[in-house]
Amino acid sequence: MEFNIRIVLVAPSHPGNVGAAARAMKNMGLHQLVLVAPRQFPHLEASARAAGADDVLQAARVVGSLGAALEGCGYVAATTARARDQYFRVIDVRAAAPRIVAEARRAPAAVVFGAERTGLTNVELEMAHSLVRIPASAAYPSLNLAMAVQLTAYELFRAGVAADAAVAAAGAPCTAPLASVEEMRRLYEHFAEVLAQIDFRDRTQSGTHLMGRIRRLLQRAEPDENEVHILRGILTAVQNRRRHAGEPPR
User: Fold this and answer.
1) How many degrees, rounded to 5, is the angle at CA 232 between CA 230 and CA 237?
2) What's 148's domain CATH number?
3) Is 88 in contact with 61 (CB distance < 8 Å)?
4) The pLDDT of residue 241
5) Is there a contact between 145 and 111 (Cβ–Cβ < 8 Å)?
6) How far apart (Å, rounded) are the C-alpha atoms in residues 9 and 11?
7) 25: which DSSP letter?
8) Is 125 in the same domain as 44?
């Protein structure tokens, strides 16, 4: 499962948090890390805290502004730990994750995290389509930067798994048009003709279920035009090779 989602850390002050964030990302299948004006990077503490996610750190991009970090992105979500005024739409991280994953299928998406002590400014928040908040105890809602990345990455992973399952259940879109009703009708008639010629018959008591089962099998398969042509070509080859009674073996 690949995510076209950037994790953007704005002005991180502690290199250990950068490394821990990289590890959290790799745990959940995220690999695009962008650092906006980090205080110290690269740094030995970042590498130590990455604990196996060195590839994420090595591939991290360092830029000078949030605008540069978001270049080429479509949907942008920014994290916040504080209540905002009515002009900002704040969404629970679990509710926001499916939208971010869905948008990332169309164009690169980004989730932005602010500096450890100050978070994101209102100007930076205005660059986002939505604000994301991680629910926490009202007595102490402040999360460590790396923890916030971990929880957000986890929700994105969950949403991605659910989205992939939904796509698989619906079936992948065909590259060729599905066979028309008329083409399927001709295929079934051809099938019945060949089965009769080779004396392949329904052995059930009623003797009427075979073609119905074949129809259901092929309808579930959703063959396209080319696949129906292949099946009919096989059936024609069977007919051409069929040995009539009395003919010598070929």
Assistant:
1) 95
2) 3.40.1280.10
3) no
4) 84
5) no
6) 6
7) H
8) yes
Q: Amino acid identity of 78?
A: A
pLDDT in tens, 86-128: 556 789 999 999 999 998 988 899 999 999 888 898 888 888 8
The whole-angstrom separation of Cα 12 and Cα 37 is 8
Token digits for 14? 């502690």
For residue 238, CA distances in Å to 5, 189, 232, 234, 243 come to 52, 15, 10, 6, 10
Residue 48's alpha-carbon distances to 31, 164, 216, in angstroms, are 18, 33, 57
- In angstroms, the CA 228 to CA 146 distance is 53
Tell which wins on pLDDT, 219 or 140.
140
Q: Are residues 232 and 202 in the same domain?
A: yes
**Same structural domain for residues 122 and 200?**
no
Residue 76 backbone phi and psi in degrees, to 5: -130, 130
Which pLDDT does position 90 carry in this prediction? Answer: 86
The domain of 218 spans 181-241
Q: What's the domain count of the chain? A: 2
Would you state the pLDDT for residue 64? 96
Q: Mind giving me the DSSP string for 91-115?
A: EEHHHHHHHHHHHHTTS-EEEEE-B
Q: Is the peptide bond before 42 cis (omega within 30 degrees of 0)?
A: yes
With 0.90 as the threshold, say if the pTM is over it. Answer: no
